[in-house]
Amino acid sequence: MIGTEFIKGYGLGNQLFFYVVTRCMAEEKGVDFGFINPGQVGNVFHSNKGMYFMDIDLGTEIPPEDRDKYTIFNEQDDRLYMGNSRHDMSNGCYISGADKRLFEIEDNTLIYGNLQDESYFEKYRDKIKDWLKVKPEAESYEYTSDDLCIINIRGGEYTNHPELYLDRKYFLNAIEHMKKINPNMRFMVVTEDEEAARKVLPEYECHHFDMGKDYVTLKNARYLILSNSSFSIMPVLSSTELKYAIAPKYWARHNISDGFWSSEQNIYSFLHYQDKKGRIFEADECRKELEEYKKRSVLYARRNIRPGKIRLFCQIIRRKSLYGVFYLKKIIRSLEKRVGIIKKYQC
């Protein structure tokens, strides 16, 4: 049996990656699959109703006390220690790519890690659509249209992290690209945090339905502008409607990267990536650029190395300056909304 553990605190996007990759590895080995704590799936910070909208086969439940009977596989975990935030200074910024050792695991193994690289699941994309099949009563094509683009904004804990939270400019640039595809394109925001989303794009219709309908709306959209959130990837991966999707280049460090990805695992062939200047890149272009970056980057050469006292002091200064600029932008945007420079959506 190949299995993993659903640990409390992870969002649905992470949980579905754990689920899908575990099943893919079990398929590879021709063995059963199972999970420790399967009841945790779908019980996340903004929903505690489980996977009420999806028929999902969780295989065999593995009792926690049986954990010691299995070989434990921990995926490679590479990090950059930088002055972007307290998190990146203390825990490091996760940058790992695929861990080829995962394909060498044997039966009776529990796998742990990020588990989001396309190479782990690309072979089974057709099967994944069945594994993540939405219940008929939860399915919806209400927002499936050739002239409607769904914008997924991730709020919540992201909103206080300048290295992570996407700026309004990212979305405006992506909107302009979508208008080149269709000048009559309409836009609607789907988010788990309406309050935060309305501060970023107050001029557009905004909804948080429930977790299931948010998921289904993304899955069945034909045009998408994504945030750097894993929640959106599985609905996109299992979509039969998608025509074009834009995601932030460098993923979780779009705002501050000098060429590294957080993480490399989030370069997907089915997405188009937009940089800070609004330029669009294909996945292969991103991968080639990253390989060149790895060869020349002094920062990348220091991966997994914690800074000394002098470098740490400089990182603290950098972190404070980033936060200062971040909150200044928030103040400016608030003033722009108050004086009417940025319009509000009218029903």
How would you concisely characterize the structure shown here?
The protein is built from 11 helices and 14 strands.
Strand residue content: 5-15%
Question: What is the CA–CA distance across the termini?
Answer: 53 Å
CATH architecture descriptor of the largest domain: 3-Layer(aba) Sandwich
Uncertain regions spanning at least 5 consecutive residues: none
* CATH class category name of the largest domain: Alpha Beta
**Class from secondary-structure proportions:** alpha/beta
What is the typical, i.e. mean, pLDDT?
A: 95
Helix and strand sequence: EHEEEEHEEHHEHEHEHEHEEEHHH
State the CATH topology of the largest domain.
Rossmann fold
Overall, the morphology is globular
Largest sheet: 7 strands, mixed
Give me the number of helical elements.
Answer: 11
Instruction: Give a count of the beta strands, DSSP E runs of length 2 or more.
Output: 14
Strand order of the largest sheet: 10-9-8-11-12-13-14
Q: Kindly state the percentage of residues in helix.
A: 25-40%
Radius of gyration: 21 Å
GO molecular function: galactoside 2-alpha-L-fucosyltransferase activity
Protein name: Glycosyl transferase family 11
Keywords: Glycosyltransferase, Transferase
InterPro entries: Glyco_trans_11 (IPR002516)
